[in-house]
Amino acid sequence: MAFISIENVGKTYNETELDSAVQVLVGISVEIEEGEFIALMGPSGSGKSTLLTTIGAMNRPSTGKILVDGIDVYGLSDERRADFRMEYLGFVFQQHHLMPYLTALENAMLPLATSRVPTREKRERAMVVLESVSLGNKASRLPNQLSGGEQGRLAIARALVNEPPLLLADEPTGTLDSKTGSEIMEVFIDLNRKGQTIFMVTHNQENAALADRVLQIRDGSLVGCCAPPETGRRLSAQTNHELQTVYMGRQRAVSEPAVGLDPA
Amino acid sequence: MRISTLAFANLNRRKGKAMFLTVGIAIGVGTIVALLSLSNSIQEEIGAQLDRFGANIVIVPQSNSLALDYGGVSVPGVTFDEHELSNEDIEKIRQIPYHKRLSVIAPKVLSAAEVEGQQVLLAGVDFKNELKLRQWWRIRGRNPETEGDVLVGYEVARALSIIQPTEQSPQKGAQMGEHHSAEEQSQFKVVKGNLQIAGQPHSVAGVIGATGGPEDRMIFGELLHVQKLVNKVGQLNVIEVSALCKGCPVEEIVGQIRNKVPHAKVSAVQQAVKARTEMVARLTRFSAAVAVVVLIIGALMIFTTMMGSVVERTKEIGVLRAIGFRRTHIIKGLILEVATISAAGGFFGWASGLAASWIVLPYFSETGAGRELNPTLLLAAMFGAMLIGTLSSIYPAVRAARLDPSEAVRYI
Known about the structure:
The complex is a heterodimer of chains A (264) and B (412). Chain A is α/β, with parallel strands linked by helices. Chain A has a single domain, classed as 3-Layer(aba) Sandwich (Rossmann fold). Chain A has helices at residues 48-55, 78-88, 104-109, 119-132, 148-160, 178-193, 205-209, 237-255; strands at residues 4-13, 22-32, 37-41, 63-68, 71-72, 89-92, 166-170, 197-201, 213-218, 221-225. In chain A, α6 links the parallel β7 and β8. In chain A, α5 packs parallel to α6 (178-193). Chain A is globular. The model of chain A is unreliable at 227-240 and 257-264 (pLDDT under 50). With 412 residues, chain B is α+β, with helices and mostly antiparallel strands. Chain B has 2 domains: 3-48 and 277-411, no CATH class; 56-267, no CATH class. Chain B has helices spanning 3-13, 15-52, 87-93, 127-133, 154-159, 182-186, 223-229, 250-260, 270-312, 314-322, 327-364, 375-401, 405-408; strands at residues 57-61, 68-70, 73-75, 85-86, 102-115, 118-125, 139-141, 149-152, 163-165, 188-190, 194-197, 200-208, 218-222, 235-236, 238-243, 264-268. In chain B, the strands form 4 sheets. In chain B, strands 1, 5, 6, 7, 8, 11, 12, 13, 15 and 16 form a 10-stranded mixed β-sheet that branches. In chain B, α11 (327-364) runs antiparallel to α12 (375-401). The longest helix of chain B has 43 residues, at 270-312. Chain B starts with a helix and ends with a helix. In chain B, 42% of the residues are buried. Residues 170-174 of chain B have low confidence and may be disordered. Classes of the chains: A alpha/beta (264), B alpha+beta (412). The interface between A and B is medium-sized, with 39 and 27 residues.
C-alpha cells in the first residue's frame, strides 16, 4: 500500500450554492511512495494549493478520500486532524510565515510548543534541525535579522523539528532570487536523500526537474503524470524499515485517544 | 517553548495594545474599588452618626399596660408605678458578650411630680450618659453638677416662667403646648434659678432648647436623687441603650440583653434601625449599579480589543493551526494573554482605586474611617478582572479557534 493514497478527490467551493459553486479539483487519484520527492506544477488557479492543503489535512475534499500511512485523514475529528498534522506533516509556506517576535530557535521550537516534552529536550531538538540547515550559529536572531535564504531554511527547520514523515512545500522558492532558491532546493534534495517524503508545489521548471516525479494539474485535474522513476533517490531497505518503525508509533499517537484529549 | 511562552511573547510584541488594555481594565477596577471603599467608609460614617443620635434599643418592664410615646418612639409597657427594672439590671446589661458595642446605657426613672403647683413629668437620669445620648439638646445654662441641679424642658420653663424671651422675640403666651416659632424658641434667657419640686428646693442648672419632643414637657434630675424624691429607690422605668452595630445586627444585641434581663421587654427601635439599614441599602444599590455599568463597559472593551486582535492575527493563527495546534491550544493561548493582562489591570486598578479613595475620603467622611489595605479586596479585584477578562474573550478566542486553517492559509 502506498504511503499516500489520493483516491478520486474532488473539491468544490460553495457547493451548496449552485450559482457560485466553483469546482477546483476533479477526480484526482494518485499514489505516493515513502521517500518520494513529488513536484506539482500547473498554472495559477489550476488547483495546486487546494490539492496541497487537502493532502495537508486542512481542506476537506468534497468527494474521495486521502489515506496517509493507512490513516483516513478526513475520517478523523478536527482535533485529531490537528494531531495528525502535528505528527505527520511539516509545512513550508511560500512567505515562510515565521513568527517575527520569536528568535530562530523559538521559531524552530514552535511545533513542539504543545508537546509535553521537557523544554530542554525541545531546545536540543530545535538546535539539531537548525544545525542541519546551517543556522546553528544564528539561533538567537530574530527572523528580520536573517537573509531571505536563511528565513527559508528556518521555515524548513520549523517544518522538520517534529520529524514529520511528509514535508509539504508551497512554492518555497517563489519569493527568492535564483541563488537563494537554489540553497533551499539543495536542502530539500539533501532531506530527500535521507528518506524524507516531499510534496512540493512549484511554478519553477528547474526546481520541478529535481523531483522524482512531476505531477501536472490543469483545471483541477491531473493531466500529466510521469511514472515513478526506476532509479533515482529511492530509499534503502534499511532506511525504509527504520521509517516504518517510526510511523507505527505515530499512527498510534493519532489513532488512539490520548489522556485528557478529545477521544473523538 | 510552551503555549504560555507564545502568549507572553505576543504580549511583549504588542506592548502598546497590552498596555492600553491593562490601563482600561485598571480604570474599570479602580473605579469599582474606589467606589466600594468610599461607599464602605460612608456607610461606616452614616452608621456611626445614626448610632450617636439616640438610642436604638429600649428596655422596659414586662407589662401590658398602656403605651407611652417617648422620644418620638413608641415605647410600649411603660407605666409610672411599676418597679420591675432596677439599678442592678444596668450591670447585667454591661455583661453581655457584645458589651463593647454598647456605646451608651441611659437608665431613667419617671414619675409625675408637683412643681410650683403644676403636675410635671419628672425624670431621674444619669446625666453623664443621658447627655451623650441626647446630643441634639441645646442647653441654655450649664450642665447639672450636684444632685439638686435640674434641667428643665422648654415648655415647662415657659409655663413656670423660668425663661423669658429676649427683646427680638417678645413672649406671646405661657401655656404648655402652645406653638412658637423656631426663632422665638431659640431666643430666650433664664430668669429664675430655683424650683420647688415635690416640696424640695432645686436649682435650675439649665433650660433645654425646644426640641419638639416630650423632653419639652419634662424636668430632668439626677437619677439617685429623683429615685429618693419619688420613693422609687433602686427602681427604673426605662433603660435606653445606644449600640454601635456595624457588622452586627442589632437584633443579636437585643437577644443578648433579653437573656440577661429576662423580666424586661427589650425592643430594637425599628425606626432607627430601618433608617440606618435603608440608608446603607441605598448606598449599596448605587455602588452596585455603577459597578455593573463599569463592568459592562470593561467587558465590551476587552471583547472589542480581542476581536480586533483575532482578525489581526488570522494569518498567525492559521499557521499555528496548520502546524498542528489544536483549537483548545489556540483558545488557551488567547485566554492566557487576556488573563495576564486582566490580573495586571486588576492589581493596578486596586492600587489606584484605593489611592483615589484615600485622596477623596476626607471630602466625604469626617473620621476618615476605611483607610485600610484590604487583601481580600485585592484578591477580589484581581480575580474579578480575570473573570471578566476571560468571559469577555471566550467568544473571540473560540472564533479564532474555529478559523478554518485552509481559509486562514489562503492569506498565506
